[in-house]
Amino acid sequence: SQELEQSPQSLIVQEGKNLTINCTSSKTLYGLYWYKQKYGEGLIFLMMLQKGGEEKSHEKITAKLDEKKQQSSLHITASQPSHAGIYLCGARNYDKLIFGTGTRLQVFP
Amino acid sequence: GAGVSQSPSNKVTEKGKDVELRCDPISGHTALYWYRQSLGQGLEFLIYFQGNSAPDKSGLPSDRFSAERTGGSVSTLTIQRTQQEDSAVYLCASSLEGGLAKNIQYFGAGTRLSVL
After folding, report:
1. Contacting residues of A for B102, CB less than 8 Å apart
2. A57-85, pLDDT tens digit by residue?
3. Which of B12, B18, B2 is nearest to B108 (CA)?
């Protein structure tokens, strides 16, 4: 079965700093999704990547899918307190999503 | 509706009781998914509906769990004879269609179930 490992598990950064979260799959990725979750809330869709080498950006968040399609990274530039939350990567496995272990991000002023 | 709606947002029940969780997907979305999020297990898939049919029930943990969807819209997840290990946040998601990589799953806020 496919497994997704995220690193780091937890991240505490000062506001304004850049950071990167990684998601590594045990199998080739066919559709990789990034979501953000705040406590007590559902998952908010951020970005979807499909092709090896693909890169997408939204506001200060950039996600990439590596050429071999087994790893993705999420990069946040000039972090803000609003970026705090749990970031989850999800891989398409037939019709369902398999989720990573999650990365908890805290941003302090 | 504007987003995926789940009710109740919180449910506290006694061990052995039955509970029903409801999901109202985004209007026009034919695919609907149930997931469970717990501290020890992370986010796990339970069941997938395409229309009113459930082609993938592989994630249901036991025969105490069942789900149905009527009219291609609202879905109900039922847990019979609840156990303490059923305590978790149950999340529902919907997408335009299933089976295509491009279809994005949009999630509701979840139902937090606590079994005492």
Report:
1. 31, 48, 50
2. 989 999 999 978 799 999 999 999 999 99
3. B2
